[in-house]
Amino acid sequence: MEVMKSLSDVADSKQQQEQQQQQQHFHVLAVDDSVIDRKLLERLLKGSSYKVTCVDSGDEALKYLGLIDHDDQKPTDSSSLTSPYPQQSSSEQEGSKVINLIMTDYCMPGMSGYDLLKRVKGSSWKDIPVVVMSSENVPSRINMCLEEGAEEFLLKPLQISDLKKLQPYLLKTLDQPSSSIDSSNNLVVEEIGDDDHDGQSKINEEINKGSVMNNTNASSISKRKAVTTETSDRIPKMKGLVVA
Amino acid sequence: MDAVAQWRNQWFDYTHYLRREGFLDDQFAQLKKLQDENSPDFVVEVVSLFFQDSEKLLNNMARALEQNVVDFKQVDACVHQFKGSSAWIGAMRLKNVCINFRNYCEAQNLEGCLGCLQQVRQECLALKNNLENLFRLEQQIVAAGGSIPVME
Fold first, then answer.
1. How far apart are the CA of A152 and the nearest CA of chain B, in angstroms?
2. Domain range holding A104?
3. In a domain? residue B124
């Protein structure tokens, strides 16, 4: 009995750790030409325990995603002291980059957020959710972006509550069928997916608790539910043994 | 009444004044919520960054408006950015001046634009002074061993 208890406790805290790790795996690429906006975005996202990379233009975003040849890349103007710009060192291969969400400003000099959205959706990164932000509430602009495949259109200034809207898209990226993701992303998706099913069940619970799912995600949720019903009945027993 | 209580009262009076006069709106309270033990100086950092950035933007606007042939689109782009930044920190009066400014840009009204630029500079200075006062007050509260009240 005692032995089983402690094993369960260990397993349970391992579950929590895994869940935390999965949350910490969420990497957001934030694209905005304004230094203030980048600072605020970074703070908001880090406050939700996401890892953030900020870039100041659509071009820089494409370079980061490896969609532009960056042989002759110069270091970007680091006007933001606090946002680390991606270092294009030779040691970091494209294949190791993981992005779970792209957030982009709409109005940017040069490449607009809409242009960036189109580029991303027409690339191997097309399954990565893209959220467009703007300080202007222009319905035609919003529709245009949503039609082009943006998951969400958020009005600036963003609130802490807006971040809750992002969660379903991020969680969805954990559930992506590997075929639709560029091979560079497969690595991480499989890593997470191959963890014991308890990790997935825990996420499933979180989603149900959150109840912020929109209809498009419903089918993927029910799929996941079907997969994990076998393991889910273990959860109540383990929950009972959780040391809070 | 002890020192902390006095400073805190002053803080309430001052923030009410700033809200009433439109210097700050609810967004500033949201900004404060982002400050915590992990980012204890967040608000001051953002505000400093704002004033640094605004200096740059205002200079760009001034330069653009001095040209023989004024590129109103360029001025508008600067004002748009400035308006966005002002909104993030809850600088309501600044944001409102920017709205007027953009209207003048659209109408390609040079005089109107120059007037707005002047107004923006004045509002910026006033806001800077007000925020410096507020932060000083907060420092005094903390130095006296108290905690800064939560902004509603």
1. 20
2. 25-68+97-169
3. yes
Residue A229: inside a domain? no
Q: Which two tokens stand for residue A237?
A: 């027993």
E strand or H helix at A29, and its extent? Answer: strand A27-31
- DSSP letters for B32-92: HHT--SSSTTHHHHHHHHHHHHHHHHHHHHHHHHHSSS--HHHHHHHHHHHHHHHHHHT-H
- pLDDT band of A139, cuts 50, 70, 90: very high
Shortest Cα–Cα distance, B144 to chain A (Å): 29
Q: Are B137 and B16 in contact (CB under 8 A)?
A: no
Domain count, chain A: 1
In a domain, A42, yes or no: yes
pLDDT computed for residue A172 by the predictor: 80
Q: How far is it, in rounded angstroms, from Cα A166 to Cα A173?
A: 11
Instruction: Say yes or no to pLDDT of A183 above 50.
Output: no
Residues of B in contact with A157 (CB under 8 A): 27, 30, 84, 87-88
Q: How far apart are CA A29 and CA A131, in angstroms?
A: 10
Is-above-0.90 flag for pTM?
no
Contact state of A156 with B88 under an 8 Å Cβ cutoff? yes
pLDDT of residue A214: 42
Q: Is residue B93 part of a domain?
A: yes
* CATH number, position A152: 3.40.50.2300
Tally the domains of chain B. Answer: 1
Picking from A43, A109, A157, the nearest residue to B42 by CB comes out as: A43
Distance CA A106, CA A158 (A): 14
Task: Report the chain A residue with the minimal C-alpha distance to residue B77.
Answer: A109
Q: Do A34 and B77 touch (CB under 8 A)?
A: no
Residues of chain B with pLDDT under 70: none
Q: Does B98 touch chain A (CB under 8 A)?
A: no
Return the CATH number at B64. Answer: 1.20.120.160
Domain assignment of residue A1, yes or no: no
State the pLDDT confidence band at A82, using cuts at 50, 70 and 90: very low
Angle at A57 between CA B105 and CA A59, to 5 degrees: 125
* Domain coverage including residue B55: 3-32+40-144
